[in-house]
Amino acid sequence: MAKVTITLDADLAIEVMLLSGTRSPQDAVELLVLDYLQQARRTEARTGEEDPARRHAVPEPPPPVD
Prior knowledge:
Blueprint: H1 10-20, H2 25-47, H3 52-55
Helix pairs in contact: 1-2
């Protein structure tokens, strides 16, 4: 698998490391991205595939409150 280099703010890298419980910023970001992708797959599996036309539709504003 190809590798990429990403530059992050040190505070952001430390925050991700603390949340993931890792000692390496690279491992922390990798775990975060993998979790994000797995969560998206789980959501798609539960809800089914969304209609592409609805995905980009502009939602209607809520009705006015009297």
